[in-house]
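Posting this for the archive.
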Amino acid sequence: MNGTRTGRTPRARMPARPCGGPLYLGMLTIALSCAPAFADQLEQDYLQQKEAIGSRFEQANTGCKSLAGNARDVCVAKARADREIGLAELEAGYRNTEEARTNASRTRAKATYEVDKEVCDELGGNNRAVCDVDAKARRDKALADVDAGRKTVAASDEADRVRRESDYKVAKQKCEALAGDARAACIDAAKKRFLE
């Protein structure tokens, strides 16, 4: 064994197949035929999770029936908050939009406030008033954070749009040095790169 391979014949390299071959078309057909099944599966998962959230609420609510007074009210408020937050977050994951995520955050803040109000009902006098004010302040801060986050995303999108338009203007100006079809092709390429 002096560095040479024995008993093997060298393999010829296969030329690369273009993306229009029968194997590619077959894989594309399979992928496209599976897309509706994948969407159906996502919807089934969504519905199952939604049902599970409802079942969890029913169990928690049933557990609250053994309690009395404010403890029962707090328990029911927690069960409702868990259900509302769970449904909002499920919807946010399913829809996958900024609006749905914002709604989920707002729902969390409001549902947490409802639980905090029930907890405050246990207290009396000034302690209750302080608790109520604190609960409202936490809710208002959370909602303000949600709104600030939404504005930040919008500002970021706007800044990104301005950057792309500015880059397009520079690229277009560089295309002005060309003539005829080369100039048109250069401008089209700049549009595709920065504006689409």
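The two ends are 59 Å apart (CA to CA). Residues 19 and 133 are 65 Å apart (CA to CA).
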